[in-house]
UniProtKB/TrEMBL annotation:
<keyword id="KW-0547">Nucleotide-binding</keyword>
<dbReference type="InterPro" id="IPR017871">
    <property type="entry name" value="ABC_transporter-like_CS"/>
</dbReference>
<dbReference type="InterPro" id="IPR003593">
    <property type="entry name" value="AAA+_ATPase"/>
</dbReference>
<dbReference type="InterPro" id="IPR003439">
    <property type="entry name" value="ABC_transporter-like_ATP-bd"/>
</dbReference>
<keyword id="KW-0067">ATP-binding</keyword>
<dbReference type="InterPro" id="IPR027417">
    <property type="entry name" value="P-loop_NTPase"/>
</dbReference>
<dbReference type="GO" id="GO:0005524">
    <property type="term" value="F:ATP binding"/>
</dbReference>
<keyword id="KW-0813">Transport</keyword>
<dbReference type="Pfam" id="PF00005">
    <property type="entry name" value="ABC_tran"/>
</dbReference>
<comment type="similarity">
    <text>Belongs to the ABC transporter superfamily.</text>
</comment>
<dbReference type="GO" id="GO:0022857">
    <property type="term" value="F:transmembrane transporter activity"/>
</dbReference>
<feature type="domain" description="ABC transporter">
    <location>
        <begin position="4"/>
        <end position="243"/>
    </location>
</feature>
<dbReference type="GO" id="GO:0016887">
    <property type="term" value="F:ATP hydrolysis activity"/>
</dbReference>
<dbReference type="GO" id="GO:0098796">
    <property type="term" value="C:membrane protein complex"/>
</dbReference>
<dbReference type="InterPro" id="IPR017911">
    <property type="entry name" value="MacB-like_ATP-bd"/>
</dbReference>
<protein>
    <submittedName>
        <fullName>ABC transporter ATP-binding protein</fullName>
    </submittedName>
</protein>
Length: 245
């Protein structure tokens, strides 16, 4: 059984009297441990597809099954509990809490899981070292570069070891060199922990980091293919060695 099954999903928005079809009937299956990049231009429907798979939007028609659960009709409360246990997010704009340190930001998902403070700090420390920020744990977001903030965001997404990581344009605010480093870190962690990573991007170079490339055009899947594995995690491992030196 696939980890995620998207079955005939349509999404139609109504703007005044106009009907805008964001997704025109998408069906696909994503396997456990797969690194999947969804590529498309602005307005193609790629972010809408991610939001529906993550329960942030409801489909107009169709069905979503995740880890054997039909989540299509979940209430907001059911989705909140499901995401807490199964899903992590990496955002384009980082979404870090400005008053908290890197360590406190990374530990936050574990608070909602009821993890004790000592264990939270231990796990957050381990994950920050894994993304090469072992010497930046006490820094607040305003004291870090965009690339460093995104590494904190990645550590936060992975710290509770969810089944699925959704990343919506995670390199959209970064330069090309930092973008490659950030993707290498995410892919490396996903492989290390055998977690499913789904990345939405408009950048074809970023999309090449996946095991699988899905292209969305005008709300439909136009291309779906396996890719040759790319080296990943090197930047993270190098930074981790420096931090621990």
């Amino acid at each position: 059984m696939s980890l995620i099954s998207v079955q005939g999903v349509r999404k139609v928005y109504r703007v005044d009297r106009e009907r805008i079809v964001a997704l025109g009937g998408v069906s696909l299956a994503i396997e456990e441990g797969e690194i999947c990049c969804i590529l498309g231009t602005s307005g193609s429907g790629k972010s809408t597809l991610l939001n529906i798979m993550a329960g942030l939007e409801k489909p107009s028609r169709g069905k979503i099954v995740i880890a054997g659960s039909d989540v299509t009709g979940f209430s907001e409360k059911q989705w909140a509990l499901f995401r807490q246990k199964n899903i992590g997010f990496v955002f384009q704009s980082y979404n870090l809490l400005p008053t908290l340190t890197a360590l406190e930001n990374v530990a936050m998902p574990l608070v909602f899981r009821g993890t004790g403070k000592g264990k939270r700090m231990q796990e957050a420390t381990k994950m920050l070292k894994a993304v090469g920020l072992g010497t930046r744990m006490s820094h607040k977001p305003t004291q870090m570069s965009g690339g460093q903030q995104q590494r904190v965001g990645i550590a936060r997404a992975f710290v509770s070891h969810p089944k699925i990581i959704f990343a919506d344009e995670p390199t959209g605010n970064l330069d090309s060199k930092t973008s490659r480093e950030v993707m290498g870190i995410m892919v490396g962690l996903a492989r290390r922990y055998h977690e499913t990573l789904i990345v939405v991007t408009h950048d074809r170079e970023i999309a090449r980091f996946g095991d699988r490339l899905i292209e969305i055009h005008d709300g439909l899947v136009r291309y779906d293919s396996r890719l040759a594995p790319q080296p990943a995690g090197g930047a993270a491992n190098e930074e981790e060695r420096k931090a621990q030196a």
